[in-house]
Design a protein that fits this description.
With 886 residues, the chain is of the alpha/beta class. The chain contains 30 helices and 29 strands. Strand 7 and strand 8 (216-221) form a beta hairpin.
Length: 886
């Protein structure tokens, strides 16, 4: 029998084991064989990380959770499929490629579309494999043979099919709407791609003269830079202050353009002066007001958010420059009334953090009202579950308040819109195939739309496009819908909602039934990890130092669904120590087996109490771990198996059976071998989903193992139920812990032997008598003597109170009174010296009069403490002298 290495070193086997799993194809389910055997499918699709990204702690935690579930279900007999993949990440990748070209002295426009896409593909091929290799280091058991990329030919076909289907139903349309425009990335953004940051700003109140009258109306605004785009002043129709103003015209100061004063219920009378300017081309609410009152449009900014020729004298200024100039001009003209502090939320691009500009633009949209309804109903009916449940409120709120989704992006990297225009007659044609002839007028003056689709449009199809849709495939038939999605709570609206309504629309089914939402990983101080703070931690560095298993266990036991967690190296070290504990315990078991030992059996009829206890407890732990994983209480499941291994198996059972293991009774040793190995095998199986590498390595050394642990069955439970023995060992453990703690408190070495006096009832006395050899082995008790009452022992004892019993340890057995007398003498001399020092200090008038009162009081408190300590030492010394005299 090959022996395990003396010390645990994950570098010795982690890469080897992963390569072995890959070579044997153990991540790839045999679909047809599984179907024939009646196995149920269990499917997860990996949230596709950006192709140019690197593994960060969030990825590590998210993928560890998925791996735990897929390994667990594989062992439970499911046909378990985990589909991996990556996302082309249109804006992120394009920005990186543009930056690379800039450093090379090139530009996107100078290259042209085709050459730019060649550069983008080259970038993707160079950097795209990073995260895949990093995930392998983590130990993920996804089916790499089914790996997908959102720009794959098959997935691109799915995107085109989805777009065309929605277009034919009238759910995709092109229109002039207010969109979120990022001046830095020069592209439209969906509402979900905008982060609103609370900040302190200003509210300006200006005086707009009434045309032809010696009067004015006061308007309040937080955006003076958009004044050149004003097309009306609006008031609430119920506001008595402004009834006589409605129907008149106001004059925009400095610009000298007349605009109507209108009444609209959109206006809040309590906001500012109750009169607001309406800028339909630069505010989504103003756009709606403008449409209701047929105000038209006036776009005053370009794609860099600089004011254009429609802004008159302010043309060419940035938003910030225009704001300063307009406020200055209005102030000098006497039109600035006041400036107030104002707290508001400002939208920023979630990628580059630039303040977004609401802007009128011709874009492509998905009409959301019809698609949102079934997605909302699925949750309300209980068909879709969130873990934790509270995130269902975010899901419903977003769907109840959803706006049409802007899906066109002014980017080249991504899925190009399958839309063609005839430049002669203006016909719009949507087609999978390239269009060369206009279907309306026959012209060949055709051009394809330059824009690409929002990255999330392709990601929304991920659960079924990865399985071959729109084709009808065996995978789609067997593995779809998937079972659970594990993702961060920050992309419920980005991704989760879009997958749900897309799947219902296309497949008629939910894409998954459960959504497990993770929190963020923060540093030890609770701060979000970021480059700017310099507190980011590379998971690969942690793996290199501590091993993948220790990192995985740290990420899982430190997290609960939906809550942020703090990452700590101390916890990683602790979990590496746990690996070491398991390694040493396993090695101890295997080293004590006979050379020719190949078959471990539990010899039921010859079991001792401790054997029956550990067999029952491992059964109970299997059930507990299984139930917690199935309820997505994954961190608690990990802790349950950890506590059983460390405490009950290693610290108690192995220590209990060492005398039998080293004893002369060969038959009893066989009993111990059987139980040790049976429990160890179950331990390794339970722990495998959490710590796959160390468990696979140890499992290979067990006698009679014929297959890899990864494809073995989940351990059977319900085999043993010895409740009486569980209670007996519980009594034993409580008593021994009490004895050990008492010795520690008295500074008595654990190995000191003593007699044990027992005060308890008959039933409990029988348990102590039955298990007396364990008291000798684990608590160094030379004998157990039952006593009728407390008076049966002297005062010179240590008392330990446990449930339904009181234990007494004679001090004379535990303490060397000569040494104790010497120690007490030294302590008394030291304490007397401290008293003398303090008394001299307090007798010094200079100290008492000049020192701060609190310092003097502190010194007096010290003196009293020393005197009390001396009193106690003298009492103890007198007691010791009495014992010596006796």
């Amino acid at each position: 029998m090959n022996s395990m290495q003396k010390t645990y070193n994950p570098k010795d086997f982690e890469s080897r084991i992963y390569a072995d799993w890959m070579e044997k194809g153990e991540f790839t389910p045999d679909r047809e064989k599984d179907k024939a055997e009646g196995k149920k499918p269990f499917t997860i699709v990996m949230p596709p990380p950006n192709v140019t990204g690197n593994l960060h702690m969030g990825h590590a935690m998210n993928n560890t959770l998925q791996d735990i579930l897929i390994r667990f279900k594989r062992m439970r007999g499911y046909s378990a499929l985990w589909i991996p993949g990556t996302d082309h990440a249109s804006i992120s990748t394009e920005v990186k490629v543009v930056e690379k070209l800039r450093k090379e002295g090139k530009s996107k426009d100078s290259l042209g579309r085709e050459k730019f896409l060649e550069a983008a593909w080259a970038w993707t091929e160079e950097y795209g494999g990073n995260i895949k290799n990093q995930l392998k280091k983590l130990g993920v058991s996804c089916d790499w043979s089914r790996e997908r990329f959102t720009l794959d030919e098959g997935l691109s076909a799915a995107v085109e099919e989805m777009f065309i289907r929605l277009y034919k139903k009238g759910l995709v349309y092109q229109g002039d709407r207010i969109i979120n425009w990022c001046p830095h990335d020069k592209t439209a953004l969906s509402d979900a791609e905008v982060e609103h940051e609370e900040q302190e700003g200003k509210m300006w109140t200006f005086r707009y003269p009434i045309d032809g009258e010696d009067d004015a109306i006061m308007i309040s605004t937080t955006r003076p830079e958009t004044i050149p785009g004003d097309l009306a002043v609006a008031v609430n129709p119920e506001d008595e202050r402004y009834k006589d103003y409605v129907g008149k015209y106001a004059v925009i100061p400095v610009i000298e353009r007349k605009i109507p004063i209108i009444a609209d219920s959109y206006v809040e009378s309590e906001f500012g002066t109750g009169a607001v300017k309406i800028t339909p081309s630069h505010d989504p609410n103003d756009f709606e007001v403008g449409a209701r009152h047929d105000l038209g449009q006036l776009l005053i900014m370009d794609e860099e958010a600089r004011l254009n020729e429609n802004a008159g004298k302010y043309c060419g200024l940035s938003r910030e420059e225009a704001r300063k100039a307009i406020v200055k001009d209005f102030d000098e003209g006497g039109y600035l009334v006041k400036i107030d502090d104002h707290h508001n939320a400002v939208g920023h691009c979630e990628r580059c953090k630039t303040v977004i500009e609401p802007m009128l633009s011709k874009q492509w949209f998905v009409s959301m009202e019809e698609l949102a309804k079934p997605a909302l109903e699925a949750y309300e009916k209980g068909d879709l579950h969130f873990v934790p449940e509270r995130f269902g409120k975010i899901y419903t709120h977003w769907l109840e308040n959803i706006r049409d989704w802007c899906i066109s992006r002014q980017l080249w990297w991504g899925h190009r819109l399958p839309v063609y225009y005839c430049d002669d007659c203006g016909e719009v044609m949507v087609s999978k195939e390239a269009v060369h002839t206009c279907t309306a007028c026959g012209s060949q003056n055709i051009r394809q739309d330059e824009d690409s689709l929002d990255t999330w449009f392709s990601s929304a199809l991920w659960p079924f496009s990865t399985m071959g849709w729109p084709d009808s495939t065996p995978d789609l038939d067997f593995y779809y819908p998937t079972d659970v999605l594990i993702t961060g709570y920050d992309i419920i609206f980005f991704w989760v909602i879009r997958m749900v309504f897309s799947a219902i629309e296309i497949t008629g089914e939910l894409p998954f039934t459960d959504v497990y939402l993770t929190g963020l990983i923060r540093d030890e101080q609770g701060r979000k990890m970021s480059k700017s703070l310099g507190n980011g931690i590379d998971p690969l560095d942690v793996i290199d130092q501590y091993g993948a298993d220790a990192l995985r266990f740290t990420l899982i036991t430190g997290s609960t669904p939906g809550n942020d967690m703090r990452f700590s190296y101390k916890r990683v070290e602790s979990n590496r120590n746990f690996c070491n504990k398991l390694w040493n315990a396993s090695r101890f078991v295997l080293m004590n087996l006979p050379e020719d030992f190949y078959d471990a059996k539990v010899i039921t009829e010859k079991l001792h109490s401790e054997d029956r206890w550990i067999l029952t407890r491992v059964d109970e732990t299997i059930v507990e771990v299984q139930e917690k994983i199935e309820k997505y209480d994954i961190g608690m499941a990990a802790e349950a198996v950890h506590d059983f291994i460390w405490d009950e198996y290693c610290d108690w059972y192995i220590e209990m059976v060492k005398p039998r293991l080293y004893g002369d009774d060969i038959e009893d040793r066989e009993v111990v071998y059987g139980v040790l190995l049976d429990v160890l095998e179950k331990i390794l199986k339970m722990l495998h989903p959490f710590m796959p590498f160390i468990t696979e390595e140890i499992y290979a050394f067990l006698p009679s193992t014929k297959e890899d642990l990864i494809v073995s069955s989940w351990p059977q439970s319900g085999v043993y139920k010895y409740d009486e023995d569980v209670e007996k060992i519980s009594i034993l453990r409580e008593a021994i812990r009490g004895i050990r703690n008492a010795k520690a408190e008295m500074d008595i070495e654990p190995f000191r032997k003593s007699k044990l006096y027992l005060l308890t009832d008959d039933a409990r006395a029988e348990v102590y008598d039955e298990l007396k050899e364990h008291f000798a082995n684990l608590a160094n008790c030379t004998a157990i003597e039952r006593i009728p009452d407390r008076d049966a022992v002297s005062d010179d004892v240590i008392s330990v109170v446990v449930e339904k019993a009181e234990l007494f340890l004679p001090m004379k057995d535990l303490v060397d009174y000569d040494k104790e007398a010497q120690r007490l003498k030294k302590d008394m001399e030291k304490t007397e010296a401290e008293i003398e020092r303090a008394e001299k200090k307090l007798a010094n008038e200079n100290f008492v009069s000049k020192a701060k009162p609190e310092v003097v009081q502190k010194e007096r408190d010290k003196l009293e403490t020393h005197k009390e300590n001396l009193k106690n030492l003298k009492e103890r010394a007198a007691f010791v002298q009495k014992q010596l005299a006796d």
